[in-house]
Design a protein that fits this description.
two-stranded antiparallel ribbon, alpha+beta, 19% strand, 210 residues
Amino acid sequence: MKYFALPVLMFFFGLMTSAEAKSTNLISEPVMETATIGGGCFWCVEAVFQRLNGVEKVVSGYAGGQTENPTYREVVSGSTGHAEVVQITYDPEVISFTKLLEVFFLTHNPTTLNRQGADVGTQYRSIILWKDEQQKQTAEVVIKMIDDEKIYDNPIVTQVVPLEVFYEAEEYHQDYFNRNPEQAYCQVVIAPKLQKLRELFEHKINEEAF
């Protein structure tokens, strides 16, 4: 990633966030929204988004494939077509979908096809599953902007597809990092992501969640 280009990215997202905020000022009570994304192992993505102000809940699960009610063993075999994803419930008056995507694209590598680090397979692909046309258009605009600004050396390969159904993962996958912080994978893979989150988005994180 080209860190010198990050100020441009932050400025762009700031403009979009301001515009979105103006459109929501007339809403008297916040209406919670959902976003469904995948960026490798869902333990990692869950831990990152749990630490943002405005995020109410993050649920790990499976989506994007053809098998109904898949199990973890089926998904990791690569036979279901599903990706490991999280579904985020958030307050758009506190954090926008655009800002969620900014965090998403800067806390995983969206240029490696079907892998994140040592996690390899279609189940670990980078994916945004949109629930409406607005989410789809926002995702496409953000991806084009990142590619145009050459934030990464290689082009974005993140899938942008409609959300058909989200299957919640088994209970032991939920809140994984918080319950297993000393586990080797958590220390080696997840902890550095959280440090990066703190460095890049200090003004957006919920310190009580760290």
